[in-house]
Amino acid sequence: MAHLLPAQTATMNVVGDTAYFVVSVPLSALHGIDDDRSGGASQAEITRHSREIADAFNRRFHVSSEGVAGRVLMTMAWSPQTEGPPADSAYVVVLHSERFSSPPQRLVVETDLFGTRPGEAQMTMTAKRDKREDSAEVAILRPSAQSHAFFKGGLATFADFVRIGIEHILGGPDHLLFLLTIVVAAAGWRYWLGVVTSFTVAHSITLTLAVLGVVRVAPAVVEPGIAASIVLMAALNLWRGGPAGLAGGRARIAVVFACGLLHGLGFAAAIGAIMAQGAHRLATLAGFNLGIELGQFAFVGAVLLLAAVLRRVVTVPPGFALTRIASVIAGVLGMVLLVWRLP
Fold first, then answer.
1. Among the four 60, 235, 251, 312, which has the fewest Cβ within 10 Å?
2. C-alpha closest to that of 20 among 119, 88, 107
3. Within 10 A of 59 (CB to CB), how many other CB atoms are there?
4. How are strands ordered across the β-sheet holding 61-65?
């Protein structure tokens, strides 16, 4: 079934002094549209409430150039379905245009049109000038980052994706669980530096290759594989206790590297396609990678600090007590993720 625009996406094309938008708005972000309470909006319901949808959109979607709002030319609501049998949709497509007093050089878009259902808490917007692919710039809007300034240059794009990388790693329980299993396996800065560096290099390689289109692996394979990597590392911790049981730290680093290649494909599945579309691809890739590393080291630092505090205030049994506790927790949660992600 073909759709006018995928869910959770938006486009902006600037031609002269006018900005044209096509925005998918989750039905759960609107009120009073689903008359029959089917959980979706039919073409008839969208037509019946077109004025209400347009009014809500204009109240909650703002565009400005140098602090000055544009003049709204048109706001129209449509069903996203373009062919096939009529069906209710979980979102509405809004066509919108605004004109400015002169061709805008830097446009700021701000909105809170995010849904309440799973996966609806962000909007990926692609902006272009005169429909030129080489001018494309992509931004991710979400409740914690409701505005974005487009066409502001590579350095600002780099900084934006540093933030997005930090948010992505700290908001990804699967990656954090994996980091937990490798950090608690042994003590010592040489070991920690080795495994974290191995993970970093590995996921950077596959993320870059996926963004460049060199490597393609289906998410249906990658996502369960990431969950399985958590279970594997937790099991290795419980089996022999630490790197010594795996013929030393080098063996553990090699295993972490192999798992890191898989995690890099996971990063790419989440955001790689977005980076591939942007005009500032290198700045975007570098910023996102740096953000991941900063978030990663922040998490590792927090884990090590917490472990040090616990050792001072709590009597820890001999052996690998903390390793075993953390590994059991990570292993159970990893198994839950694995079952959840299996087709």
1. 312
2. 107
3. 10
4. 68-69, 61-65, 107-111, 147-150
**Could you tell me if 141 and 125 are in contact, meaning their C-beta atoms sit under 8 angstroms apart?**
yes
Taking the C-alpha atoms of residue 299 and residue 192, their distance in angstroms, rounded to an integer, is 13
Residue pair 95/76 in contact (Cβ under 8 Å)? The answer is yes
Total residue count of the chain as it appears in this document:
343
Using CA atoms, how far residue 327 sits from 41, 103, 232, 259, 261, in Å, is: 46, 57, 10, 16, 21
Q: At what angle do helices 281-313 and 173-183 cross, to 10 degrees?
A: 50
Confidence band, pLDDT 50/70/90 cuts, at residue 1: very low
pLDDT tens by residue, 183-193: 877 767 777 88
* Upper half-sphere CA count for residue 1 (Cβ side, 13 Å): 10
Contact call for residues 88 and 1 (beta carbons, < 8 A)? no
pTM of the model: 0.66
Residue with tokens 């980076």: 275
* Cβ-defined contacts of 301-304 (< 8 Å, 24+): 303/179, 303/180, 303/183, 303/184, 304/183, 304/192
